[in-house]
Fold:
Amino acid sequence: MERMPIPWPEKPVFQINDAEIPMLATEASIEIDCTLRGDPVGFAAVNRLADLIANSVEVVEGGGEIRSLMDIPTSAVLGRAINKSQRVAEINTVDELAEEARRIAQDLRSGTSIQKESLEKLEDFCIALAMEAASYGQSFFNRNNFIGQGNEDDTLGVRKEAP
Amino acid sequence: MIPLECAKKRLEAFIHQIGELKQSEFPYKHSEDALLQVESDAGRFLSHLMRLPEDGKRSLLLNACRQSLDLLYFQLPVLGFILRSTNVRNAFEAYSPLLRLARCLLGPDIRLIISSEWEYAPLLHPSPGMIPDFVLIGLPAHESGNPLLIPLSGHELGHSLWRKAKLKARLRETMERHISDGIRGRWAEYKTFFPDIMVDPENIEKVVRARDTLEQAVSWCQEQAEEVFCDLVGLLLFGSSYAHAFAYLLSPCFSAPRPPDYPARRQRVAVIERAAGKLGIFVQSDYSGMFQDLLDPPLTKREMFMLSMADRASDTLVAELMEIAEGILKERQAPRPDPAEIAEIRKRFDLVVPAQCGHNLASILCAGWEAFNDKNLWINVPQIKDKDGMLRELILKSMEEYDLELLAGPSHDAQGK
Structure:
């Protein structure tokens, strides 16, 4: 097996169970909304979200083909957010999902330079992503409450375990 | 009052509370650092809320208010944890040695908070993305001064290592392949649970609708693999003392059903036992006999099918996880228990004197557990009425000695100041 490199891998990974995602997507939606209302506050969260999503895909060497690097729970939640925000008609394959993820990252990075209608769609996407990511975590929280173990409320925040 | 107004006022009250907590006297700076981090996150979110007009887009407002509520729900226990880090019942002698270990493993910027909790199963760490670069280690209040349970912090350090090394992403393809292979092997059964999925077995990972059916199994597998990895890190760092502490805290099992994102208890114990054997660590005969499996979780048949896929996949990963854990610890030059040191310390404990300088934390704790398990310990010293109490004092004193020697060395930086 390949030895673990030092220093640690620094490239952030887009993972849906990361507690940062719902809050980050919410802050991004507010930044976009402020821009749409002519009251810009900067795009710190938008840019961070763009970086994370951009890291979730890669261009296959030697061609323009896009490959998903997302794990299945992450791609499932991202797919639900895309469907909910009606960015595209339908996504059937993982390759299509990866392509759409790349487009979203590009649009987020374009920020104010894209059309108002596209910006509104991005706002809807960020809201949908925040809600889907939060409820992904929440579904496990409920599951664990239901189980009655009372030792895990992993998801958005604190996780307790034994050990 | 409208939800946005409530959300802003709640966050303001939360931030005010942090201001009150900041007046506490903390035994080390990292507790204050964590408060500042939580305050900064809450303040940033509040400033975003302040930009929203009351008559703004409804979906935007409701989501923002909902997220603010989640923030409070999940961050409030962290404030409680930080506050309890000031409590004198905590084993402060363990702080510096544990911080050194954490920094050795995770880098010089890592910060540590140890605390005591009023829940039995309180070992706690923030989820990824929430106060990153902090390791939070708690023990049940009635055991928080018991150094024999310190080895369990190895498990918590494992969680931080898992995140720092981005192991979920690194193992993504392997985990998903194991799940898909498992499903292909029981395809007819899978089809009974998902009759609407029209896809060939070989394309299950490529078609979104089919791939989404694997979400739960993959998620459980990820969580289970992380738990296994953390047990292996605990065992590698603390040797037999990890296995003893694990059994002390958790055997035979809780009465509640098994959480699906943990491996089955017997599977978990078997991993510890097998890994100990491989590492030449003697735990005790019939270690696994101390444990019982928890009840099956109350899941649907379809969920149970997916759980069996997750269990199978995580079990298949054990050897790889062990190799990764060993590789990381070796490269980080993490101190490991030393049998000769353990024997030497044990002799000193028999003489009712603490370990001398030069011994590492894990060796002290392994020797401590050996003494604890020895029914004949101090049998000829009738003056010692409270053997457990005396042993704890010896272990804590030994940790202090260990720390003093490191502080006297040239590269000390672990005071958390």
